[in-house]
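Collaborator request log, item 7. Partner lab (contact: R.S.) asked for a structural prediction of DUF1640 domain-containing protein to inform their binding assays.
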Amino acid sequence: MAILFDTLKIRNRLTQKGMNEAVAEEVVELLNEAQIADLATRRDLESLATKADVAQLETRLMRWTIAAAGIGGLVGGLIGSLAT
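Returned to partner:
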């Protein structure tokens, strides 16, 4: 998500504070080029998993692993008993 700057307003404020107009224009141009793509927005941060989400997922995975191991043991036992 891009962050929009009012470049004219920034340039005007810089020149009103005594900055040379050409330098103020360059500062505004650098602001436009420098950032935007790598900034995280509030929406980006809200979409990240929390520690609680990760802990809940770990618990679910552990339950699935234990259940799968139990089923595997039962199947192995059944196959073993049928083979004898």
